[in-house]
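Extended Data, panel c. Modelled sequence:
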Amino acid sequence: MIGFLRGKLVAKAPPILVLDVQGVGYEVEAPMTTFYNLPAMGETVQLHTHLVVREDAHILFGFSTEADRVMFRTLIKVNGVGPKLALTILSGQSADEFYRCIQDNDTAALVRLPGVGKKTAERLIIEMRDKLPAADSATDNTSAAEGGVTIPRSHAKQEAISALCALGYKPPEASKMVQNIAQEDKTCEDIIRLALQGKIK
């Protein structure tokens, strides 16, 4: 099992990023909460990882905090929740926000996430209430990538729409989510963050 990766950030196209670890490029899928914490391209980043092995693929998931990885691993143990849906949930909410939804039985906030219906939200609350770590652990937001700055990229809105579609939103919905966000001086990650914040509220 690969516990963590530490290497140079060489590519990012949410939800996928690539790390160069001593000449080997690792393709990693990560939630938006991790993308928000990434340093500039070419800088070193360390990610906590989880490897999912399927018959047709080995998929590596990466997280900037241990709390997010713990939440991911807890989520995929819930009946009907796979890695893709777990990644979507962690992209729409931080581990702390999700923890509070479970503790407060807030199904309304959960069903606003793509792929989460009322029954799934209720199942998440029932099955995860006793499995989550203590509140102080869930709120540990120590990032593995410190001191980084993001670089504005062209066509940021289009990249944001593509990323939202990869997270489970339908193209018309993804376009609507970003259409009123001013693009000036914003990276793709900034636009996705604002779009998801507007969706969850």
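The domain at 66-138 is CATH 1.10.150.20 (DNA polymerase; domain 1). This feature is highlighted in the accompanying rendering.
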